[in-house]
Amino acid sequence: MTFSKKLLSAAVLMASSSIALAATDSTDIEINVTKDAFVNLIGSLAGNTSVPLADTDVDGNTTVLGTLGTESNTTGSCDIDVSSLKDYRLEHTTQAGLFLHGTDNYTVNYGGQTFTSGASGTLTQPNCNQVASDLSITSPALAGVVQAGTYSDTLTVTVTTQ
User: Fold this and answer.
1) pLDDT by residue (tens digit) across 42-51?
2) Separation of first and last alpha carbons in the chain
3) CA distance linking residue 28 with residue 36, whole number of Å
4) Which end of the chain has the lower number of beta carbons within 10 A, N or C?
């Protein structure tokens, strides 16, 4: 029996010492950060702005309304479009269809581009980071007596990255 115990002990010792099992695991972790693209209008006309004008400002003159520029974190060009709610005419606020300059339209001047009724002008800037510069309107001369009241229009300036 001594021999069997020795043989059994030797077999157990050999089995446990000859096979060494190791366990391992690994993983790859990719880290991503996404920054959304943005473009903003900057300058004194950025945001919802109201610009009160005097009669002399809209009587055959070019009048600076304020400044406008763009800032962005994108590369490439930007398109700027200007549209008018009243087709580039100043309409009486309480008498619909009564316009300050009759059937004549004013023009918007910005960045060397002219925007007005019937013209589909788009200003393409080479990049989307432009310092604020003057945006002006050029109005026709007033003809005769102008009915009392407030005349208004709303311009919408849209900048789009390319």
Assistant:
1) 999 999 899 9
2) 91
3) 26
4) N
